[in-house]
């Protein structure tokens, strides 16, 4: 391993960090709790104060009536963590719920516009859609995370954005760079965060050549992983005075010190951005199905499997194409609770 020190800043802190006082309205990244804080930003874009709150409504996304639950008048709701079927974030008041199904929608998700013109895809309008089956997932072309929640889709170009990415502002501030960054369309640009090229969307500095992919911009400031008991902190170069070349704890390959990494100073452990990323963080699990090939119900769950682990059909679980093929990932599968039987999403 190595002794990692930082030139001019500590883990996750940059001497060139943009001054938050310059524009308090900028979205400042990275966020401590990336998905949750990003949802809060997204929810602010929907002006809830001007929305009439119907006690019961029929929504295009669900076959049954939805009932409004408001914290001001409904104090008997159980304090259980459940996820919104629109944004796939923890439900919070006010929200709508189906009394017959495990179906929940934030008030902001109920009132999403059905059509959207987006700056990184202005050729065609994007239409708000939902998955036809609860286990069907789509890959967001911006953050590269799978989702079974609502998404905006351009059918002509096969371009998809999940609802949080669709409402990102056109300008942001990021801790890794001193100047504000503006949204841009990708065209095989090199990301200064990961070192990989991106072709969908990202953010750039108008004063220099600094560019980061949408994917890198949305990385959380801290993350947890089973290989380390401490929170891992997102760190930026320059790094120096490492005794040896340093390696990712997951894939065990050498890391390039020119790009961002996640680091634990207590354990002196480092991780590639792509190796540690949770590609299925935006999926709501639960629900069961019946299949002809097995006598018991199968539950939609998340299981840790290696890339070359196989389900009962003989196919690999993992659908994400990785740079390294020997890393573990937790991915959605169908599992029988009574016996050792599983099916991958492709088989279902």
Automatic annotation (TrEMBL):
It comes from the Eukaryota. Signal peptide: none annotated. InterPro entries: C1-like_sf (IPR046349), DC1 (IPR004146), Vacuole_Formation_Reg (IPR053192). It holds the Pfam family C1_2. Residues 61-110, 121-166, 228-276 form the DC1 domain. Keywords: Repeat. PANTHER family: CYSTEINE/HISTIDINE-RICH C1 DOMAIN FAMILY PROTEIN, PHORBOL-ESTER_DAG-TYPE DOMAIN-CONTAINING PROTEIN. This is DC1 domain-containing protein. It comes from Ilex paraguariensis.
């Amino acid at each position: 391993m190595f002794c990692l020190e930082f030139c001019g800043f500590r883990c996750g802190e940059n001497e060139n960090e943009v001054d938050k006082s310059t524009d308090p309205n900028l979205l400042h990244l990275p966020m401590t709790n990336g998905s949750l804080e990003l949802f809060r930003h997204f929810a602010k874009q929907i002006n809830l104060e001007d929305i009439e709150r119907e006690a019961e409504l029929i929504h295009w996304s669900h076959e049954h009536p939805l009932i409004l639950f408001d914290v001001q008048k409904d104090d008997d709701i159980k304090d259980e963590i459940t996820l919104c079927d629109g944004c796939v974030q923890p439900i919070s008041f006010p929200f709508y719920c189906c009394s017959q199904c495990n179906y929940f929608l934030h008030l902001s998700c109920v009132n999403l516009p059905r059509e959207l013109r987006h700056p990184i895809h202005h050729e065609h309008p994007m239409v708000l859609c939902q998955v036809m089956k609860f286990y069907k997932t789509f890959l967001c072309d911006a953050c590269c995370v799978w989702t079974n929640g609502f998404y905006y889709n351009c059918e002509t170009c096969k371009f998809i954005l999940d609802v949080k990415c669709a409402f990102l502002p056109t300008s942001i501030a990021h801790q890794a760079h001193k100047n504000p960054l503006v949204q841009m369309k990708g065209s095989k640009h090199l990301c200064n965060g990961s070192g990989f090229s991106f072709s969908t969307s990202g953010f750039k500095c108008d004063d220099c050549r600094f560019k980061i992919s949408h994917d890198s911009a949305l990385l959380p400031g801290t993350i947890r992983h089973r290989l380390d008991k401490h929170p891992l902190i997102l760190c930026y170069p320059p790094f120096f005075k490492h005794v040896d070349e340093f390696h990712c704890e997951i894939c065990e390959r050498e890391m390039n010190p020119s790009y961002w990494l996640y680091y634990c100073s207590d354990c002196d452990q480092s991780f590639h951005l792509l190796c540690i990323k949770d590609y299925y963080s935006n999926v709501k699990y639960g629900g069961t199905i019946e299949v002809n090939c097995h006598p018991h119900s199968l539950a939609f769950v998340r299981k840790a499997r290696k890339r070359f682990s196989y389900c009962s059909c003989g196919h690999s679980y993992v659908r994400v194409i990785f740079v390294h093929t020997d890393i573990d990932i937790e991915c959605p599968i169908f599992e029988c609770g009574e016996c050792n039987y599983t099916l991958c999403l492709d088989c279902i």
